[in-house]
Specification:
9 helices, mainly alpha, about 170 residues
C-alpha cells in the first residue's frame, strides 16, 4: 500500500473546502498528517501492550470503504484515536505539524488529525484482514516506506519528513 491508496479513501476535496485551502494543500496535509499518525501507530506497536491495543481498535474499524465527505467521518472517534496514539503529546504533535515548513500552510492539524485517524484505522483494518504472515508491523512498515536500508526515501511510502516531526516526541524524552 502507498500514499495514493490512502489518498483515494480520503475526501481531499471536501477537506480543502472545509479548511479553505486548495486541493493541493489539502493533499499535502493529508500526506503529512497520515504519515505522522502511522508513525505514532508504528511506535505504539513496538510494545506488546501497544500492539494488542491497536489490534483491538482495528477490529472495530474493519469494513471501512473510504469517505466521500468529512461528514462521513466519526470525528469524535478520531479524537479518541489521536489521543491513544499520541497521548498527552497530541497537542504538541499538531503544533509541530502546523509549524513545519514541509506541511501545507493553512490547515489546523489539531482538527485534521481526528478526521484522518478513523480513515487510516479503517484502511489498516482492511489491510490487516487480507494480510498473511507479518502482521501489523509489516503493514505499518510498508505504509511508512518499507525498507529503510537503501539510504534514500522509498517511492510509495509516507515517510517523508516524518522523522523531523516525531523525532523529539518519541526520542530521548519521556
Amino acid at each position: 500500500m502507498n500514499v495514493d491508496e490512502i489518498l483515494k479513501q480520503v475526501p481531499v476535496d471536501d477537506i480543502a473546502k472545509r479548511f479553505g485551502v486548495s486541493p493541493e494543500v489539502a493533499r499535502q496535509a493529508v500526506h503529512e498528517g497520515g504519515a505522522t499518525l502511522l508513525g505514532g501507530l508504528a511506535k505504539n506497536a513496538e510494545s506488546g501492550e501497544g500492539s494488542a491495543a491497536i489490534e483491538k481498535a482495528l477490529n472495530r474499524h474493519g469494513g471501512f470503504a473510504g469517505a466521500s465527505s468529512v461528514d462521513d467521518v466519526d470525528q469524535a472517534d478520531g479524537e479518541k484515536i489521536v489521543t491513544h496514539v499520541f497521548g498527552e503529546r497530541k497537542g504538541e504533535v499538531a503544533e509541530k505539524l502546523n509549524q513545519s515548513e514541509k506541511t501545507a500552510g493553512g490547515i489546523d492539524f489539531g482538527k485534521l488529525l481526528p478526521i484522518l485517524a478513523p480513515i487510516i484505522m479503517g484502511i489498516l483494518a482492511n489491510k490487516s484482514k487480507g494480510s498473511s504472515g507479518g502482521g501489523l508491523g509489516d503493514i505499518l512498515g510498508g505504509l511508512l516506506g518499507g525498507d529503510r536500508s537503501s539510504g534514500g526515501s522509498s517511492g510509495g511510502g509516507l515517510g517523508g519528513g516524518l522523522g523531523d516531526i516525531l523525532g523529539g516526541l518519541f526520542g530521548g524524552r519521556k
